[in-house]
Amino acid sequence: MDSLQKYNIGFVGLSHGVHRFDMAIGQDFFESFPGSVLQQGQVQLELMLEKRPDMLIFDFLLRGSVQLDCDRCLGNYAHAIDHRQRLYVKFGEQVGEESEDVFVIPHGESHFDVAQHVYEYLHLELPIRRIHPSGSQGEAGCDQQMIRRVHEHTHGRKRAAEQPGKGGSQWEALKKLKFKES
Fold this sequence. Notes:
Elements: E1 8-10, E2 17-25, H1 27-31, E3 41-51, E4 55-69, E5 76-91, E6 96-99, E7 102-105, E8 111-113, H2 115-124, H3 144-162, H4 170-175
Parallel strand pairs: 5-7
Antiparallel strand pairs: 1-8, 2-3, 3-4, 4-5, 6-7
């Protein structure tokens, strides 16, 4: 069975009005998107579908956490997810995205797949810099042994760059260049 099948919402047999779908997003969902930053997590999706004669309105509520790799120490940490998003689905001839929150599907469709939208909404919640959160006492959440190793390697490079003739800076080579005056 396709792990994303449950995200293909059938709306033809539903009456006009609001309908609720609750889904647990777990490992099977993340494995369906290989190469993604997100590979693990536990997120609850509360999907409200308002069916109207001329359109569908989806309200997404995503809550839970995903596992991210820290940019500073490369350790794994849990990042909280709490995201709301509204998507309008209209019926028309031109299939595709009309804008970031309006999608058009053909008149004869009976299902709408929300998996790709859920995937994108989860990514909207990710920070640009992924760093362990600080502890309750303000202490760094990063792996201190890894931070020491990084400092050892970066300070060694800085010291070599500061000493002329010993690896020196990239500007030393440029200072030696002679140009002909015209």
